[in-house]
Design brief:
The chain is built from 11 helices and 9 strands. By secondary structure, the protein is α/β, with parallel strands linked by helices. The chain folds into 2 domains: about 250 residues, Rossmann fold (3-Layer(aba) Sandwich), CATH 3.40.50; about 100 residues, no CATH class. The protein is elongated and about 100 Å long.
Length: about 425
Amino acid sequence: MSAATIEVPRPRPQLAPVAQVSPIVPIKVGLFGGQGAGKTTSAALLAAGLSKEIYNGAPVFVLDTEPGWQFLKRRVFDVEGVELIQRTTPTFKAMIDSVREAEKLGCCVWAVDSLTVIWQELMQSFKAKNGGDIPINVWGDIKQMWADYTTAFLNSKMCCFALGRLGNEMDEIEDDRKPGRTKLVKTGTKFKAGGGESFGYEPHLLLELSLEKKAKRKAGVALEGEGRMVHRVDVLKDRTWALNGKVIRWSDKSGYQKGEYRGVWESIQPHFKEVQATMAIVKIDTGHSSESLIADGGSSEYYRNRQRRDVLVSELHAAMELLWGGTGKAEKQMRLKVFEHIFGFRTKEAADQSSLETIERGVRILQAFEKRIAKEREQGNEILAKGEAEILSQIDTDVREFDEGKAEEQELPF
């Protein structure tokens, strides 16, 4: 399809009814740590707990980039009678698509394991299209695409978990041994995803997992090489303050018995309860990495669409000003009514926030109307000099012809 062609006619947009807010406010959790720290098992147990205790056994969805959840399917989810839906395509586009899929399937929990792998795949996709490098002018585009993911993560009506690998926070300080020189030192840890900015900023609850080995003791003496593993959970952030700064410990197990998710669920329950009491489902206004999304020149489809959208918005407002410009009451009223007839809402601000397809549809309808005016003018008939009802009737004709695919193809400014 060419840049200036719409193959499928778009129906006239209608004002969407206000969605009913679910009484359950979903939690958004980030879990990160080193290898073997227990991220996957802990997330699975928490997901099973939410499904059983809150969502009446609704399915759990995971984008599993390092396939491992299939072992938990048999050990945990089958035991609890909870469906686990597992997808294993380790790409940014697959992750974005999986959020929508999970919502359509009625899942209560969506998880990505690991988000670090997805971030690395996104970087490699851009590098492959930019000769092995990522130019500085492309970074803004990458960050915007990543922001679209975090928006989907936070906006979803599902509880969302992001699992990731441990990264080190490094700071440059003066080297005491070599005056005038600096050195990098580790000053902390972070959730390794999203480039220089840790993904830990986005979740409402951020957990760092690590392993502790508890030695077996006999007669007060620790026995070397014997004991048990304990998963230590440091709560690095809790926006509700319910668990801030706490350390939780979950013992490792050699097997699983029905209901044993409760150890993890009950530890996190104070946060869940506080979320229900203090938060509302707040939406953030809203993106892909595959070869179809990044052009050979290195720019992404997102960037190209953004440029196209900006041009169309300018074209839309220029057409409105040409037809009904001015600051008088009559001109303002006419602009409001024309916006309503074309878009289904009355303000240019609402039109500006519409999708690319909606704005393009509006521009094409106005183009058809302008062409109609020109033809009528050649015959001595001035449409704009007629009454409001006649003008809106002519616009409705152009709307109907476009939506039915009968409108003559118009050139766009690309």
